[in-house]
C-alpha cells in the first residue's frame, strides 16, 4: 500500500505515474473534483488513460471525497483503504465518500 500525491496536474506527470504504478493491482484515485457528465473525476480519467495506454492492468477505482467542503479525517482514509482492499469493489462507478 502506498500514496502518490500529485502536486502539479498540468503537464500531467505521465511517466512518473506509470513508473510508480506499474506493479499495482488496485489504484484508488481520490479527487475532490467532480466532472459532471463524465463517468469519472478528471484525475481518475487521466490515471486510467496512462495505465491503459501503457497496458498496465491495475484496477482503477475513482473516489470523490470532501464533497461540499466536508473534512476528511485519518479514520476516513482508513475506510477508503478498506474499500479498496475489498474484492467486489467496482471500477465502473465513482464512489462518493462522505456524501449525505
Description:
With 100 residues, this protein is α/β, with parallel strands linked by helices. The chain contains 3 helices and 3 strands; from the N terminus they run αβαβαβ. Helix content is 32%, strand content 15%. The chain has a 3-stranded parallel sheet, sandwiched between helices. The longest helix is centred in the middle third of the chain and has 12 residues. It has a single domain, classed as Rossmann fold. The chain starts with 13 loop residues before the first helix and ends with a strand.
Tell me the CATH topology: Rossmann fold
Number of domains: 1
List how many beta strands DSSP finds: 3
Shape: globular
Global Rg: 13 Å
Termini separation: 28 Å
Helix content estimate: 25-40%
Q: What is the name of the CATH architecture?
A: 3-Layer(aba) Sandwich
CATH class: Alpha Beta
For the sheet with most strands, the description reads:
3 strands, parallel
Amino acid at each position: 500500500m502506498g500514496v502518490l500525491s500529485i502536486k502539479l496536474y498540468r503537464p500531467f506527470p505521465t511517466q512518473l505515474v506509470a513508473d510508480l504504478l506499474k506493479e499495482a493491482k488496485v489504484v484508488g484515485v481520490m479527487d475532490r473534483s467532480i466532472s459532471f457528465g463524465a463517468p469519472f473525476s478528471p484525475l481518475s480519467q487521466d490515471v486510467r488513460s496512462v495505465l491503459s495506454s501503457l497496458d498496465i492492468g491495475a484496477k482503477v477505482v475513482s473516489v470523490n471525497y470532501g464533497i461540499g467542503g466536508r473534512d476528511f479525517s485519518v479514520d476516513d482514509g482508513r475506510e477508503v483503504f478498506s474499500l479498496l482492499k475489498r474484492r467486489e469493489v467496482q471500477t465502473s462507478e465513482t464512489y462518493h465518500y462522505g456524501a449525505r
